[in-house]
Amino acid sequence: MENLIKLRRGLDIRIEGCPDSSLNAPTVSYRKYAVKPTDFYGMQPKLKVQASDRVLAGDALFFDKNHPQITVSSPVSGTVDEIVYGERRALLEIRISADEKLEYKQFGALAQADFTPEKIKEKLLASGLWAFIRQRPYDLPADSDTTPRDIFISAFDTAPFAPDMDMVVHGQEEFFQTGVTALSRLTQGKVYIGVHRSKTASAAFTQCRDAVVVPFDGPHPCGNVGVQIHHIKPINKGERVWYVHPQDVIVMGRLFAKGIYDATKIVALAGGQVIKTGYHKIVSGLNLDYLLRENLKEGESRVISGNILTGTRVAANGYLGAFDSLISVIPEGDRYRFMGWLTPGLNTFSYSHTFWSWLFRSRQYRMDTNRNGDTRAFVLTGQYEKVLPMDIYPMQLLKACLAKDIEKMEALGIYEVSPEDFALCEYIDASKIEIQEIIRQGLELVRKEVG
Amino acid sequence: MLRNFIDKIKPNFEKGGKWGFLHSTFEAFETFLFVPNEVTRKGSHVRDAMDMKRTMIVVVLALIPCLLFGTYNVGRMHFGALGEAAGFWRMFGFGALKVLPMLVVSYVVGLGIEFIFAQVRGHQVNEGFLVSGLLIPMICPPDVPLWMLAVATAFAVLIGKEVFGGTGMNIWNPALLARAFLFFAYPSQMSGDSVWVADAVSGPTALSMFASGNMEAVPSIGDLFWGFVPGSVGETSAFCILLGAFILLWTGIGSFRIMFSVLVGGILMIWTARLTGATDATVGQHLLSGGFLFGMVFMATDPVTSAQTRCGKLIYGFLLGVMAMLIRICNPAYPEGMMLAILLMNTFAPLIDYGVVNQNIRRRRKRQLKAEACR
Question: What's the fold here for domain A5-26+112-258?
């Protein structure tokens, strides 16, 4: 592996509750599933089913109003139980009670010899898997009428508690390869796979064909696909790239090999509030109650679908997000800390050295959701740069976003970032500013005005 | 127990409560005692334990050695000039009688204005003045009349900070602005070439000796390093300043880039001046005397008013060091150049950042053009 990209800036948050490496199979039959249109950021969902409809795994549940060809399918077969709306009739959840034995809609396999862009596109759109291809800039569903410059896959995750992707791809190597080969036909450019220099061991990633494998090394957010794009080939104004999560590449591979939409994935269960952490082989959209019941410690918990920096808060009986392969459960921080500015802080993790805990490099710390202070104006400088390994001036970009100055945002590289890349900046911010939200709104504004 | 008491009286201060108009004040005291129980709602679910209060307290802690030594030194200078022998505690006690009222005036006036503004704006009280309020007495000569100190503090907080929108928005370092105000508004009391040593006695500082070329009278390097020389309260002891610098760098709050580049700029300038014969003092004498080190460690590194980009910090610091020495050596009207150099570079910091950020912008545009050419 030549051309190692070594990143030095970043931060690995040492929080207790990392998933152990056990792989658990379902102990009871899981029946409750849901698809959440809100996971597909940027889609305007329109329903295709109603309550009490019968669906197969692979039947479309809803489509995007702006791109009617893009649909999202049911991961399981069963009956549509309930459709949950939120404020202003926003579509929140489509709940499905699954059959004991899943029935799959047949899309027909596609031999590699027949891999043409049209056929691949058609198959992905028909099965609802197209919705799992995401586009940068703006972090939107990929537009099936366009061709991306390149396609990126990050084959490792550096976020706190992140699942080990080698574990995820284990036994699925062929499907992953098929998926990558199919994706490589969708672009004039290349498929890039970012792997970790030492932690990625699986040959499925490091020896992948039809793709360029780029080794990375460094702390979080080195595993973020946005950071990898920035270092492999940054996005210029007017360019589009796509990215796909490795789990979804595997699901795509299954589609081409077997002709069905089999959304089985491996998810990690982790966090300080979980009694038995580990990996679970489940189907996408599962109700978390199956994994969390009698598995949570005393006290109030926050259940997060995704990682603790960018994930979505869900109820303990909520559903796994469509793109997530991690469930984090950490204690709520609804408590007061006496004289927090004075304590030596041996038991408190902090990136800053004002807490003595930084002397103990290998310890893991209990962390909760307390905001640890009040919101202030931007005061400290040079902090965000420490955890953003990109050639971008974070403070200046944030201020341009706040000022709604589109020209400046473009000049400072708004097209290269997404909120998740700024998650660590938000985490370390002593002023407790909601940075991901600012970036999101900045991106929205540019999208509206520039398109 | 204390928590229970606060929870009991809290409703009185909430909107519509009996003392509702004092909400910000109550909030400031409450959060002083307890980190709030506020949990994350949007974005990241966890937040680092570091907050603005802790940041500011660390700077205050870093200033404490200078303050304590400065207090002692005030007494030492006093009894030394009068030729009286006095024990450590007597000197310290005398110093405390001088320094404490200054501290109280600075904090009461400054925090008072901050609280009022927070109240009127409905904001929370910012922690920034915890540091500024300590810095102001430390960079003033101990004989400054308290009413002048009060006026200067009010000027710094109002004109220096609040008109720009409060902490984080100001252009100039508020503490230095207070000092500059005194310097220009009451020049006769803040004379540049000799400072207060004891009641009714004033003595020249090392700097004024450099300026007049009276090199024999300059205190030894040892005295300059430990700080047994006349000067403003906090600035005399290089040892205590370096202790503070160590705390700031260890915790990562002070910028190493700025401190380092100020030092480099200063040394280069002294060296040049010595080559051309503009000054007789050695590099060590220049660095250790006056407010150079104090300004370098505590004021030049102010994150709000210094340059914000990594590269900008290096340029800012270097120019600051050069300017400080240039003013000190070449301008006979001002024996000390640090204050003016910092204020000047504060003014130019946004320009430096602009230049640095533009490099990034240009790089991106170039890349863009190249990509378009390939398409």
Answer: Rossmann fold (3.40.50)
